[in-house]
């Protein structure tokens, strides 16, 4: 019988990418991790590389752990922050307990006025010591993630209609889809569906089920086109 106290080796694959919306944006996102036995300490850090004060930025730290049986558990933390000149700040922390044959991916996003400024991500894979294998990012592909940033009932309704249609469409994509909402004139709001900093569709809310479902259909069609373009771009980069 195999001992339950076998020491685990944690393979950490870091995939770090930084995006800038304009040449003036100098805020960077960074995930710092510390391994102690089966516990991973995650710190989400923002760095101001400029001499001026920066404010009204937002962050999202999102983790998704895949268990041995294929079940998923998630944790989401978000907030707003400001930075003094050349300041580095820990925005939030996360502790992840990971067992043998479990995998976890952590995403960290920094945005300004809804636009993606910088992001970082890390993949954590646990295996028994002695299992010497190379972990590729493609081996940890999680599909169908939708993040809810809706603020009104109409926004939540659109999210529900979209998610139901998305699940039965047979096209769950490996990128994160975010549904956001911001106030508009009167009782209306503006609903946006985006992938990273790419806006897929945006429209004014309206208390009409068929109207909302019409935009769900349009969003799914545009996501399909976006995915095809993304695959072609990825293929060209690998040539």
Care to give the gist of this entry?
The protein is of the alpha+beta class. It is built from two helices and twelve strands, in the order βββββββββαβββα.
Description:
This protein has 239 residues and is an alpha+beta fold. The protein folds into two domains: 27-139, Immunoglobulin-like (Sandwich); 146-231, 2-Layer Sandwich (Double Stranded RNA Binding Domain). The chain has two helices and twelve strands; from the N terminus they run βββββββββαβββα. The strands form three sheets. It has a five-stranded antiparallel beta sheet, with no helix packed on it. A four-stranded mixed beta sheet has the order 9-10-11-12, covered by helices on one side. Strands 2-3-6 form a three-stranded antiparallel beta sheet, with no helix packed on it. It starts with 7 loop residues before the first strand and ends with a helix.
